[in-house]
Amino acid sequence: MSADFFEEMRIGDDLDLSMDFTDWLPTGDAIDSATWTESPGSGLSLDNFSSTSAVVTTYAAASTAGKYRVRCEILTTPDSRECIREKLVWVRT
Questions:
Q1: Can you tell me the distance from the alpha carbon of 46 to that of 27, in angstroms, rounded to the nearest whole number?
Q2: I want to staple 22 with a disulfide (CB 3.0 to 4.6 A). Which of 52, 54, 72, 77 is the partner?
Q3: What's the CA angle centered on 22, arms 17 and 28, to 5 degrees?
């Protein structure tokens, strides 16, 4: 798995998780909104979402060891394109 799609943290860590859509965005498009989710839904919390024209970031806090799939779905402006990317986050003790 590429380093771009894998993060490692420990219980109690706080980490900014970012996904860069530069290689996917057509010229002239920018990120209009982003939705973050994690699975399973407990043990890793996501908060404080932000974005630039091509990069989205969320703040992750780890409370339980395990492997989590973090999913980011973006919509673009002005063409309303949609893209979904996922990242594996491994929380260790």
A1: 29
A2: 54
A3: 130
CA 8 – CA 63 distance, rounded (Å): 13
Residue whose tokens read 């673009």: 76
Whole-structure pTM value = 0.86
**CA–CA separation, 73 and 64 (whole Å):** 24
Hunting for tokens 């996922």 — which residue is that? 86
Name the CA radius of gyration of the chain, rounded. Answer: 14
Instruction: Give the list of residues 6+ apart from residue 23 with CB closer than 8 angstroms, or none.
Output: none
Tokens standing for residue 22: 């530069």
